[in-house]
TrEMBL record:
This is Putative antitoxin of toxin-antitoxin system, YdaS/YdaT. InterPro entries: Lambda_DNA-bd_dom_sf, YdaS_toxin-like. It comes from the Bacteria. GO terms for molecular function: DNA binding. It holds the Pfam family YdaS_toxin. It comes from Gilliamella intestini. The lineage of its organism: Bacteria, Pseudomonadati, Pseudomonadota, Gammaproteobacteria, Orbales.
Length: 73
């Protein structure tokens, strides 16, 4: 199965799916869905993930389908 590389990197940086869920105010099962491309990261969560990873994970990588909100860098 194809994993979302940006989410996988965020999980590695933050120390786990549960921690990423806590930072975004969602649950670990939702993070698992993001990781396995079963669900898209909500646009509201994107800036939280970028900030938590100190910009290592880019907004445009998390939601490339929303270039008007998160333009490519």
């Amino acid at each position: 199965m194809n994993k979302n590389r940006s989410i996988q990197l965020a999980i590695e940086i933050l120390g786990g799916q549960k921690k990423l869920g806590e930072i975004t105010g969602t649950t670990q099962p939702n993070v698992w869905k993001w990781l396995h491309n079963k669900q898209k990261v909500k646009a509201d969560y994107v800036p939280l993930i970028v900030k938590a990873t100190n910009g290592v994970v880019k907004a445009c990588e998390l939601r490339p389908d929303l270039p008007e909100l998160f333009p490519p860098e």
